[in-house]
Design brief:
- By secondary structure, the protein is mostly helical.
- It has one domain.
- The protein has 2 helices and no strands.
- The model has no long low-confidence stretch (mean pLDDT 90).
Length: 75
């Protein structure tokens, strides 16, 4: 399903969009849709990277705690 929306955009962006549309022989709608998809992928990649960093820190803390407990157990 497709929906129509109305957005307000800076004139310079519209001019660039029009040039891109002409040079790529693509509709403005297609270009904007592709840009939004790309933006969503980039946001998701950033969120995943941040999550991985947070988990790495948490895993490091857990490993250090288990290592300390292991040393205590073998003393």
């Amino acid at each position: 399903m497709r929906s129509r929306i109305t957005v307000t955009v800076d004139d310079a962006l519209i001019a660039g969009l029009n040039r891109l549309s002409t040079s790529r022989r693509m509709s403005r709608s297609r270009i904007v849709e592709n840009a939004l998809r790309s933006f969503q992928r980039e946001l998701m990649a950033q969120e995943l990277a941040e999550g991985y960093r947070e988990m790495a820190e948490e895993n490091q803390k857990m490993a250090e705690a288990y290592l300390a407990a292991g040393y205590e157990a073998i003393r």
